[in-house]
Amino acid sequence: MATKSPADTAKSIASALAFASYLVSNLAESELNELKQILWIAKTGSVFADISKDSEFRRRLYALAKQYIHPIDFEIGQLDKIPESSVILYSKCKKSETGVVKTLISWESIKPESKRVLLNKRLFGYMHHNVSYPGLVQKYSAEKLGKGCIAVPSQYADVFLAVFRGMKIPVHIKEVAEVG
To answer: Which regions of the chain are under pLDDT 50?
Structure first.
């Protein structure tokens, strides 16, 4: 098998990610419970859906794949272990026994100052006439890690990201497991 160029590999992963996004966005909450993860497998260049049990759900996934705008090499089954050189495209965030999954959100300096002040008020709250107005950090037990960086419990990340999207502030996002 000829090795793919890095550009071809990147395009293949991007196509697989778009397909995974399409699948997940077209599934009901109950169906998402049956989906463990979606992988891109480098060796075959295919997308693999790891499902919890063999069921009617398999037919539903194949039907969605047939409706997708581009043809895609797609497989469904159950995995014991993740194959080498795979990329995880979708996976449920789980609370682990050793820690809690958090989302790190960071941003650069914000201009103009009025926009920065408004963001800080929304995130960290403020006092006005001796009345305290809590921000999202207090409401959702997030923590400030430094200038322009907060750690948010992953289940509330969308609430915080909506604020940044609404204010058109670009962010960097990372998922981490807090241990200890």
So the answer is: 1
Q: Which residues contact 164 (CB under 8 A, 6 or more apart)?
A: 105, 107, 119, 170, 171
99-179 placed in CATH 2.60.40: no
Greatest Cα-to-Cα distance within the chain, rounded to the nearest angstrom: 71
Q: How far apart are alpha carbons 129 and 132 in whole angstroms?
A: 8
Edge-to-edge strands of the sheet including 86-91? Answer: 74-77, 46-51, 35-41, 86-91
At residue 16, the pLDDT reads 84
The domain segmentation of the chain, as residue ranges, is 6-91, 99-179
Q: What angle do CA 117, 165, 19 make, to 5 degrees?
A: 160
Per the listing, tokens 């419970």 go with 33
Report the DSSP pairing between strands 86-91 and 99-106.
unpaired
Structure tokens given for 158: 């969308």
Rounded to two decimals, the pTM is: 0.51
Cα separation, 130 vs 2, in Å, equals 69
